[in-house]
Amino acid sequence: MTQHRPAMPVREGRDALTPRPLSVRRGVNPHAPGSAHLILGRTEILATVTLEDKPAPHMRGRKEGWLTAEYAMLPRATHDRQARERNLQNGRRHEIQRLLGRALRSSMDLRPFRNQTIYVDCDVLVADGGTRVASVLAGHAALHDFCDRLVKQGKLTEWPIRHNVGAISVGLIGTELRVDLDYAEDSTARADLNVVATDTGLIIEVQGGAEDGPVTPSEYVQLLTAGTDAVQRVMADLTRQLAAIQGL
């Protein structure tokens, strides 16, 4: 019997190696010392930063503070209502939170925050693929807002963001390599990766794998290269937009 593969999703307005349009607003939450609303294609993330004057238990007595992240998806972020994620041990949520925490910690000099904990909360308002990579981008934007405010208030004398860190998804749709997959593409990809990297092309973390049979080493390298290149392009756009936004 002949097996019929699903048709390849059609991209509108961009080629295979072009990320989706990105826009960001910072300072959107009046109660948080740092916040950002980021849109990547049709995926929307609200990220907020909270500074708590209490060290994480494993950081007591250390010379630097700690940064941790939490991730959640609103019930109508998707086509069908999803139950609220009240179980903190939800496997997917826990995995994404750990990715966000590692990515954002790697961007920060936490020595100015000794005996303090930075919380970055990323909430998915609308999901259309790439929610974890969009959360890394939104988290970075919210941290930029947070640090800018502290510097302007005289609470920090040096800029604590050491690396501009972003992320992007990349996958194989049939034989075609595409970056920044939306939901339709992600659901049909035979292999996909989430690449976390700096705006200078340094790799922080790669997460993903093959869905429909193994990939060759050459294909993996091509995915990784395309991913780091796309992160640099996205971060150049994000950094430009953040610089254009007047500090509060």
Q: In a few lines, what is going on in this structure?
A:
With 248 residues, the protein is α+β, with helices and mostly antiparallel strands. The chain is 28% helix and 28% strand. The protein has a single domain (22-243), classed as GHMP Kinase, N-terminal domain (Ribosomal Protein S5, domain 2).
Folded structure, characterized:
The chain has about 250 residues and is α+β, with helices and mostly antiparallel strands. The protein has helices spanning about 90-105, 130-150, 185, 215-245, and strands spanning about 20-25, 35-40, 45-50, 65-75, 115-125, 165-175, 175-180, 190-200, 205-210. The protein has one domain: Ribosomal Protein S5, domain 2, CATH 3.30.230.70. The chain has four helices and nine strands. A hairpin with a 2-residue loop joins β6 (about 165-175) and β7. The radius of gyration is 18 Å and the shape is globular.
Identify the notable features of this structure and list them briefly.
248 residues; alpha+beta; Ribosomal Protein S5, domain 2; globular; tRNA nucleotidyltransferase activity; ExoRNase_PH_dom2; tRNA-binding; rRNA processing
Summarize the helices and strands and which ones pair or pack.
Elements: E1 22-26, E2 34-40, E3 43-52, E4 66-73, H1 91-105, E5 117-126, H2 131-152, E6 165-173, E7 176-179, H3 183-186, E8 191-198, E9 203-210, H4 217-244
Parallel strand pairs: 4-5
Antiparallel strand pairs: 1-2, 2-3, 3-5, 6-7, 6-8, 8-9
Helix pairs in contact: 1-2
CATH architecture: 2-Layer Sandwich
Tell me the number of helical segments per DSSP (H or I, 4 or more residues long): 4
Give the total of domains.
Answer: 1
Give the CATH H-level superfamily.
Answer: GHMP Kinase, N-terminal domain
What percent of residues are in strands? 25-35%
Number of strands: 9
Oligomer: single chain
End-to-end separation in angstroms reads 64 Å
Radius of gyration: 18 Å
Largest sheet: 5 strands, mixed
Question: Could you please say which CATH topology applies here?
Answer: Ribosomal Protein S5, domain 2
What's the helical proportion of residues? 25-40%
The CATH class designation is Alpha Beta
Q: What sort of overall outline do the alpha carbons produce when their principal axes are compared? A: globular
Binding site for phosphate: 92, 130-132
Keywords: Nucleotidyltransferase, RNA-binding, rRNA processing, Transferase, tRNA processing, tRNA-binding
Family: Belongs to the RNase PH family.
GO molecular function: tRNA nucleotidyltransferase activity
